[in-house]
From TrEMBL, chains A, B:
This is Xylose repressor. It holds the Pfam family ROK. InterPro entries: ATPase_NBD, HTH_MarR-typ, ROK, WH-like_DNA-bd_sf, WH_DNA-bd_sf. Belongs to the ROK (NagC/XylR) family. Residues 24-65 form the HTH marR-type domain. GO terms for molecular function: DNA-binding transcription factor activity.
Amino acid sequence: MITAQHGPQPADFADVRATNLAVVLRHVRRHAPCSRADIAAVTGLNKATVSSLVADLIERRLVRESGLTEHRIGRPATMLMLDGTAYAGLGVTIAADQVTAVALDLAGEQLLSWRRAVAGGSAAGGSGGPASPGRLTSAVATVVGRAVNRLTAAGRQVLKLTVGVPGLVDADGTVRLASDLGWHDVDLRGELTRALRKPGYDVVVENDANLAVLAEYRFGAHAATANLIHVTNAAGVGAGIMLDGRLVRGGLGYSGELGHLEVEPGGPACPCGRRGCLEAVAGAAAIVRQVRPETAGEGAVLDLAAEVDEVVRRARKADRATIDVLGRAGQRVGRALASTVNLLNPEVVALGGHYVALAPWLLPAAEVELAAGSIAPGGGGCRLVASALGADAAAIGGAARLLDELDGGLLPRPSGT
Amino acid sequence: MITAQHGPQPADFADVRATNLAVVLRHVRRHAPCSRADIAAVTGLNKATVSSLVADLIERRLVRESGLTEHRIGRPATMLMLDGTAYAGLGVTIAADQVTAVALDLAGEQLLSWRRAVAGGSAAGGSGGPASPGRLTSAVATVVGRAVNRLTAAGRQVLKLTVGVPGLVDADGTVRLASDLGWHDVDLRGELTRALRKPGYDVVVENDANLAVLAEYRFGAHAATANLIHVTNAAGVGAGIMLDGRLVRGGLGYSGELGHLEVEPGGPACPCGRRGCLEAVAGAAAIVRQVRPETAGEGAVLDLAAEVDEVVRRARKADRATIDVLGRAGQRVGRALASTVNLLNPEVVALGGHYVALAPWLLPAAEVELAAGSIAPGGGGCRLVASALGADAAAIGGAARLLDELDGGLLPRPSGT
């Protein structure tokens, strides 16, 4: 509203049909089953126009006629439904030792959810270090290939692949820096496109926390909260930030690096090369290291999920040392979030990833610190919650990018058109 | 694009004229002098429509025919100009001891720029504490009344008054907290509207840093930078944040409280009640206190502008102690901005208010700390600069809200229509 770029465009009558197609589709997605007459009544479009638009959407396999009819005065009305069956969006996320894939149809139904371990850097797979970019990329290509085959065999056309990476991702899909993967300047979009042999679908690469907050915004317990932050916590800690219902990317796409806010000056070393970052102090691996110094060495924590389970077990048994570690971690999370709240005044911050399981012991301390560190009374109304989404939030958000495009009025292009 | 709220609306043909009026006006604002034929060629609207739209805009006193004509083939074309003469927007900012007013016409030309001192809380005006809400509000009403009289006498109609306050401002214009003014829960919009006796123009209240960044975005040296932050520094420190060309307000309007990021745990006390806030460590008053402990007591610094001038004088004379203070302040600014850059990846951060004069000694240290504290190489491309706008940036931004509305397609309603 403020900017010239966002100012009004000339009303081009040729665009009216595209806009109206999107309007009708949106109505069906929200209010199905509904009749053509319902659509005309709500949108203000005339009935002949609605019929023509619906015919177009049926041909594009986005809408179908249900067997239902509604009897009012006059002819029975055929009820319309979203046709979710023809298309799929695919989301894949990359961690140091695994690849996760989720596919959704246009109704938001989950079509598949896979997790595949990837062996580490050494041939034996036992080094504990992250797998090399080449190895991870080819693991992604393999998973994607299988998923696409599965979906195609089920009669689905994959329209979009979105790959989430825990790091700084440029607009062209190059991973500038992913310290938890040990990556610098990896042209992931290019390499994947080559490995997939010029696939017929769109391939995009995005920061994984950005994808996770899109999932939170669409499917989370606080869906559609306009000012919403999702904090990821796998090997690293990151934040996806939505303000006014829009994803914040920043100038180069490097926003949301919550894990690298300094919360303990001179504190422990972080994979990023600095000290005292939130990730190094209160990320899942840091928590594991503090709770079980005997098993966790200096390098990456092996099998982080199992180690977090062990931390949860100890906390459930009211192990004092474990609970103290989680309380201190919560304080540090609260401190980083206080800065975030002072700058952005979000309505909800959802702690995701490994923080979900740790939340019962971590959240109370984080809430206290957040309220104490925020100038607005009561943290400016910010609610700090555990995400209802699991570790595959980012993959879900990636798969849902197709739905985001649909919401934005961009209709899929079926193959052969 | 992501949200349902931002999704497509049905194309209402009744809105087409309003949209097209805004499109034509925008074209004239940017490209004047221009002919009706030029407008038709660029916008794709037909000439009869353009003529009708232009006639409407001339009647609304937004566009006028210039004396110029352009001779091409056929009839000479009358050239159109923006008619900036009929309307004015007024911006007023409130500080502890002064009120600043700026008026702009629709061409962005400055019509007036006033500054009025307001006596402090005691009757003698010598306490040094901030004036009471009642006293400040009536000072604002007096200044506004005089400005409106002056503008009206010059044939201008004031369409909008925007008042900037250094604090947390609710959407309804209540100042929830302004610690540098000592305000809590002041219904400023209501009180001002009463004091102005139900004025014929729109009255809005906004955080002053938000207004300053709107001025920076429109008139600054880095105007139209999509991801832009302006840091204010008068009695307090605040930030106005624009991301993707949109002002960030947050859930309740409490965003941008950069001055209350903790940059020195356990550091000096802040008027907000906490310790170690950026404002308490590296705000203008904190700098003055460190440079001239002999004159600055515990309370508010008297005549802050004169004191900052003295700091600048000492720095120019290469006074070691002063330069050290400014270097340390710069580090703290850089530390707070590193958190900001990690979260938001802005393209430009402009230091405004008193930081402009102090920038030669403060910026270098801030740049070093910002780069060191940011995970993205080189601060993620963020440029840290001194604002080219002065202390009245927020008042200018307030006056320009009328232009923002115009850019957003909202045409002014002339009186009597």
